[in-house]
Specification:
Helix 1 crosses helix 2. The longest helix is centred in the first third of the chain and has 13 residues. 27% of the residues lie in helices and 18% in strands. The chain has a five-stranded mixed beta sheet, with helices on one face. The termini are far apart. Bound molecules: zinc ion. The site of zinc ion has 7 residues, from loops.
């Protein structure tokens, strides 16, 4: 099986708002922008923050909304370490129907997070975004497929992968 997908750089993933189904850039033209924003913040915090900071620029009086700040998280940066560390995968229930898969520790294996997030999106047909210095959150429970992918495509030895299970 030809592995053509590996080296292609994909265009940025297309995200559709879970509330109004438009692309988030267009949500502000929808009737329920506040609810769209809540959805986006919940599901794609990175995108939410970048959209909010874009909006800061053209705040002229009335429209300016409260800006959500997250304490102490800092700028998203990748840093390389010599020692590969255990990659942890856990699931988290976001609400009754929705589970996300949270993966940490990729950076120490020399994996670029933005590229990996993009790849996960493509591979699992779901949203995926970099949410921390060494953290990616994938929408849905994709643990098994994720472990396969790490082993097969990223050549991560299974001893470096730990499934932490479901966390509340
Ligand atoms: Zn929307």
């Amino acid at each position: 099986m030809a592995d053509v997908e590996a080296e292609i750089s994909y265009p940025l993933e297309v995200v559709y708002c879970g509330y109004c189904t438009m692309q988030p850039e267009l949500c502000e033209y929808g009737p329920e922008y506040e609810k769209c924003k809540d959805w986006l913040q919940e599901n794609f915090p990175d995108m939410f923050e970048s959209m909010m900071s874009l909006n800061d620029g053209d705040a002229e009086g009335g429209e300016k909304k409260k800006k959500q700040k997250r304490g102490g998280k800092g700028v998203l940066k990748t840093k390389k370490k010599a020692e590969p560390q255990t990659i942890t995968i856990r699931r988290q229930q976001r609400n009754k129907k929705k589970t996300v898969t949270i993966i940490k520790g990729l950076v120490t294996h020399g994996i670029e997070l933005p590229a990996a997030a993009k790849r996960f999106s493509q591979k699992f047909s779901c949203g995926s975004s970099v949410t921390g210095e060494d953290e990616i959150i994938i929408q849905g429970d994709v643990t098994d497929d994720l472990i396969d992918l790490l082993e097969e495509k990223y050549k991560i030895n299974e001893e470096f992968i730990e499934d932490l299970g479901m966390k509340k």
